[in-house]
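Journal club prep — side note

Before the paper discussion, L.F. wants everyone to see what a predicted structure for a comparable chain looks like in token form. Sequence:
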Amino acid sequence: MEEVSGSSPLGSTINISRPRGWYYRRMSSEIIALAVVVIFSAIGVAGDSFINIAGNDQSRIKWAYFFVGFAIYAFTAFGWLFAMRHIKLATLGVYYSLTTIILLALVGNIFFREKLNAAEVIGILFAIVAMFLVGFSRN
């Protein structure tokens, strides 16, 4: 245990005990939570892909693909539950959104032959800037 001392406004001494390395454990839990966000974003993109396949046929919906995508989406709630315990919701949302945007753009381009226009590329770049602004503004 690490002893931290200070004085109160009334002049008395305050001693606080906290485990050694508590800051580093907090930071590592945030890093783990961010890794979970990235991993579960990728899992969510897999769900998006199945739902995209389910709805690509103009004449009918492929229900089996839809339900697989739906189940994958439901599974990502476990990652959200863990991450929300360690990261502020606004920060979590930025990292999740950015990861999802980039992964969806890659999957769309590679597997579905979708092309990005200039405005979409600029939007992705702004999202990356937003991630850095939110990441550097944390207390």
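L.F.'s comment for the group: The mean pLDDT is 81. Keep this in mind when we get to the figures.
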